[in-house]
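fold-stage: in
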Amino acid sequence: MRSSLRRARRTRPAAAGLVSALLLTGCSNVWEGAGGEPAATPIQDVFLQPLGAHGPDPFTASTVRNTAPPAAPDRPPGEDAQQVREVSGSAPGLYGGTRAIGSCDVERQVALLTGNRTKARAFAEASGIPETNLADWLRGLTPVALRADTRVTDHGYREGRANAFQAVLQTGTAVLVDQYGSPRVRCACGNPLRSPAADRGGVHQGDQWDGFDPDRVITVRPAGSVVPGLVIVNTTDRSWIERRTGTDGDEDRTPDVPPACDPDACALSGTGTPDPTAPDRGTASDPASPAPVPPDPARPAPTTPLPDVPDPSGTGTDPMAPLPPAPDPYTEPAPDPYTDPGTVPDPFAEPPSEPPTVPDGTPPTDELFPAGPLPDQPEAFQG
């Protein structure tokens, strides 16, 4: 009896610990970890965030300025429904705004976040920036408004930490975008924003607004390099505005080279406007336009014959025509001046001695050509 009671007492703490571990694991699967990094969870639900709603667990109060929200671009007639599309952060017409007025009060946003140390730390962790650089980082963002329903990873503030969830922001939502054109802060609640999860599925939760279409939702792809200025649509007169990155609208101007399309006709369809800083990949995979083959350095390039040009000298001969072949100097050799007797004699040579006269057919005698050795002394002639 006592042994069974002991086994029961030992089992109860172990069971309690197991239940606690399961509860903790279940809570961690509901929200993602701090920093906005996607956790290894099943497909998450997607929360719809209307234009001016604070949303669950806002970081701060609203910093949205009273500006007219931009209208969504016209849908091209006959366009089929598409899946979630990706648009470059530097695409003209991706954002809108009012000339010389930012859609968010950046300085108020800085004050609300830096005034609470715990919120500032959680916001910096979710945004992936140092806490000490929070104020300068916020002042480097650009206030604009969305022109399409956009999916993002949103972060609510709960119990001193940032909790990530998938969300769709309605067209006209005021946001702060970074130097790559990506939304980073939702001004209606001060929540940090990051790129959406790789898995774009999930069930949409919340009240749908008029015109919401899951197949028309876009995602923003950060530009390949720093964007010096965003080309946005003016909500008051439907004109183009170039807003310098990191400014509040006080330096807005008309673009030097406006986009080729009308602001109302530039629809964010397909894969979005290509990033102008990215390399062109269209011709690389096109079989009809193969890549040029570099010349072979060991093989000389063919030369094109020059056209016929009249002779400037007036002689009637073509200066570019080939010359007639020269005579071969080895066919009839010239006489050798050193062997030919008809050449000019050498003035410094000794005169030849006259040979003795010999009748024809008579051989020379031995007296003229003695065979023996000559005597040492000359012969004495007697008188």
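fold-stage: in (second)
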Amino acid sequence: MDGEKRHQVVVLVRAGLIPMELGIVHRLFTTATDPDGRPLYSVRTCATVPGVVATDTDIGIQVPYGPEILREADTVVVPAAVEDYRPQERGRLDPEVRRALALVPEGARLASICTGAFVLAAAGHLDGRRATTHWKSCAELAALYPEAEVDPGVLYTDDGGVLTSAGVAAGVDLCLHMIRDDHGAEVANAVARDTVVPPHREGGQAQYIERPVPRESAPSPTAAARAYALEHIGEPLTLDDLARRAGISVRTLSRRFRRETGATPMRWLAEQRLDHARRLLERTDYAVDRIAADAGYGTGTAMRLHFREALGVSPRAYRNTFRVRGGPTP
């Protein structure tokens, strides 16, 4: 990034670290690049004392940095550790970890993965904020920290620059959400493709979703409905349309859709429309009215209302922030 400082992501790890959660942060953020292939993030790992940090496996992680690098962070991520799964006490936090977090500059983004939320809560960062953690620990977090609004039914939360996520896999969704907020849907989707993960699961999606493994001889009836919806995203689709395409009743479609995607059919469709509109704003010079028609909003006015509600910005402001210069026009 010529003449620009990369966004500094610092991961603060503790003894008993879950290695996968550290790997998620490094893999996703370091995969994000600009149109010229230059990295958009620098990711470093620190501990209260540099050296080998034990994990919850039979391996240790060599951590090269101490807490001083937190002073340079734009985003700080706190993964879970084994100690978080033991019975907790209000405000209990290793003094060295507390001192380390005090080094984080004002205005830096703070995020936790899984039960790393207990660290943010103990340090006072979840006071008055919406938060989540692994569904098994949500009740304990809510009981210990009633000043936080704990939501056990979501994958992640984002409240005023403080973010939390549910279990390990939800850390993927959280990181993609941050990348999407920083650099737009095109960059986030490219990262998802490179790492072979779903490009967009909304934070409000349910944490615990039963996902039966489909047999090849019995594909999901909703797959045909979803494929049809994506091919006809610009049309005014209804529940009846999708159920008819799937060959099942509306009630059955709704039940299976929620079980397989964690969302209702119309909520899922709304997410697809929003993602399609975002990509067109980023990659084309189309007028808002044309994009609204292509994405199934009908009118530019309706699309503006949806953007305000979902993203807090207008389509024009979104385009000004995330326009991919020199990108292809379909």
